[in-house]
Amino acid sequence: MAELVLFHHARGLTDGVREFAGSLRAAGHVVHTPDLLDGVVPDSIDAGLALIRELGDEWDRRADRAVADLPEALVYAGFSAGEALAQRLAQTRPGARGALLYESCIPVTGEWALGPWPDGVPVQVHGAEGDEFFAEDLPAARELVDLAGPGLAELFVYPGSGHLFTDSSLPAYDADGAALVLERSTAFLDRLG
Fold first, then answer.
1. Which of 51, 65, 82, 161 has its CB 3.0 to 4.6 Å from that of 130, i.e. a possible disulfide?
2. Which of 87, 88, 99, 80 is nearest to 9 (CA)?
3. Average pLDDT score over residue span 110-130
4. Is the keyword Hydrolase assigned to this protein (predicted)?
């Protein structure tokens, strides 16, 4: 059994994010799903991103508070805007057991880097090949996988173009792709014990 924190995307803690978390729980894992937007579920990605920009540094502080009382030995996971939080915490909070990065990836080198990937921390990155948001992050995802190494890092690119294709409550949902993401994520968590 692994314990993880799963950060929602810019559309908030939707029913689809809750369902994904519930599937991981059903597989035997402990999943924390903090609501960083305090119940607000924006009606578009743009509206959600505008709200996150309005929150500014408070967005990160809310994530930090969400994990403050949790054990250090966590897996950090996040969808899109929540991916950045998960990746930051996996790279900077001691004790990370792994990371599941969905539909986004932040560079680990260069100007926008969060710093180096921690030694020995396994990671999976998942995204749709035609997703305009993920396409911008794909070079960073490839670099992360190369730097972390094939024994620790995996990149999975799925057919389709929908952003947030893993969220069953949103129009971009792809049932087949989401099922495969869930299967691979569960296998990743199972390996961590």
1. 161
2. 80
3. 93
4. yes
For 75, the enclosing helix (H) or strand (E) is strand 75-79
| 111 confidence band (pLDDT: 50, 70, 90) | confident
Residue 161, class by beta-carbon neighbours within 10 Å (0-12 exposed, 13-18 middle, 19+ buried)? Answer: middle
What angle, 0 to 180 degrees and rounded to 10, lies between the N-to-C axes of helices 15-26 and 175-192? 40
Closest CA to 34 of 16, 12, 11: 12
| Tokens matching residue 141 | 């995802």
User: What is the rounded distance in angstroms from the CA atom of residue 33 to the CA atom of residue 148?
Assistant: 27
The answer to whether the CB of 100 falls within 8 A of the CB of 124 is: yes
Would you say 160 and 133 are in contact if contact means Cβ atoms under 8 Å apart? no
Length of the chain counted residue by residue: 193
pTM: 0.97
Backbone angles phi and psi of 22, in degrees to 5: -60, -35
Distances from the Cα of 65 to the Cα of 42, 55, 60, 70, 89, angstroms? 22, 15, 9, 10, 12
Helices 57-68, 45-55: crossing angle, 10 deg rounding: 80
For the chain, domains (ranges, CATH) are 3-119+131-173 (3.40.50.1820)
**Residue 1 DSSP symbol:** -
Per-residue pLDDT band for 183 (boundaries 50, 70, 90) equals very high
Look up residue 119 and give its two tokens.
Answer: 């030694």
